[in-house]
What we know:
Blueprint: H1 17-32, H2 38-86, H3 91-104, E1 115-119, E2 132-140, E3 155-164, E4 172-176, E5 188-190, E6 195-205, E7 213-215, E8 220-228, E9 237-239, E10 243-245, E11 267-272, E12 279-282, E13 287-296, E14 301-304, E15 307-312, E16 315-318, E17 323-326, E18 330-335, E19 345-348, E20 353-357, E21 367-371, E22 381-384, E23 390-405, E24 417-426, E25 430-431, E26 449-451
Parallel strand pairs: 4-6, 4-24, 5-7, 5-24, 6-8, 6-25, 8-9, 8-10, 11-13, 12-14, 13-15, 13-16, 14-17, 15-18, 16-19, 17-20, 18-21, 19-22, 20-23, 21-23, 22-23, 23-24
Antiparallel strand pairs: 1-2, 2-3, 3-26
Amino acid sequence: MKLFPKNHLPSSTKLSGDRLLRSAAQSLARFRGDRGGATAVLLAVSLSGIAGFAALGSEGANWYLTQRRMQGAADAAASTAASALAAHAPTAALTTEAKSVSASFGFKNASGGTTVTVNYPPKSGNYQSSPAVEVIIAQPQKTLLSGLFLSTSPTISARAVALADTNKAGPACVVALDPDNGPTVETVITSGSTALDFPGCSLYVNSPSPVALTMNGGATIHAAAAYFVGDESPAGLTTVHGTFTKVDPMIDPFLNAVIPPYSGCDSTNYKLTGGSSATKNVGLSGTHVFCNGIALTGNSSLTLGAGTFIIDGGLLSIGGGSRLTATNGTTIMLTTSNPSRDCATTKIDGGALVTLTAPTSGALSGIAIYQDRACTDLKVTNSLIGGATQNIVGAIYFPGEAVSYAGNSPTGGAQCTQLIAWTIKFTGASTFNNNCAGTGVRDVSLTGGRLVE
């Protein structure tokens, strides 16, 4: 293409300003003087077409956004229904769950012509013979100016299929929450003669690191199932129902459990040591606050009643031979009321006698030891190595810090124990039992729905 420099147009294009104005005026005069009306008709038709295309563009954009929102609703509805299926919900509940989720997105069945169809199993696609749920949402769209050019109103639809992960064996009893993506991050470590047995429950590791589970020196783990966000299956790990990799991360199962409000201290620097006064029975219910820790040494003994016992800063320290007993429904909570001061931590020595049973109801149901979610000092390791004399029925929950654990076999005889922590290091042998009926312990379920179409 030949380009002409500025101010150097061909002579045929050089029109003065006056000539341009005269030319425009003459064209307008001819249009006004067209008594046959042909020009006006042509202009009207042209404007109608332009307006129609503009309407189609505008309404089409709205329909596109509606379809995207509808697809999100179908995906969420199918996943929710598949999760219900995996949890062995009745078939009728699948439809109820899916339609409820769809309505929360603004697509309510039988409202404004909207239809939400739930098929179990799917009636089309590649999963018609699988434990999957199909959700189809359809909704007619209103037309405005585009109605002049469309013979019928368009109907937008979206379809999703989610597969129920029903092959999961038992709830999780050991969960490492650390999601760190670092290639050298170890979140569960076993070594030496460590032998872990989870006969009725599963191991779950949130980190995708290839060394998230590190097993050294002949250590072994035998679980009902094992789940890894990463892609690994280390030697020494055996399962009854399989090892599953590249799964979704486990969501913190106790996000709705919080430290109850409190003020003041019932006791400060609470200590018991050996001697005739070494036995103390704090048979109180409700909420009680120990500031700057609890220390039991020299074969001393402390009994706590039912309720919530908050340790505000300091250390829960139980020396070998000393005893802590709380069997009527007790939660020990570790926290700090001063953000500039370290959180309370735990040190249970080998040979310590710990018998702790979580409450069976209420907001802290099933939680035996709870460290505040705001406690996130990764340089700290909470030590629970009481061994065979450590009998904890309920969840041991340290969502932001590391835990070193030894429970021996089977973790002090406890019928139902969960260990959920940021990272975990096992020493010695431990068995986690899953006889949790009637204990108030939550089912940390690994069942879910996975979108496949």
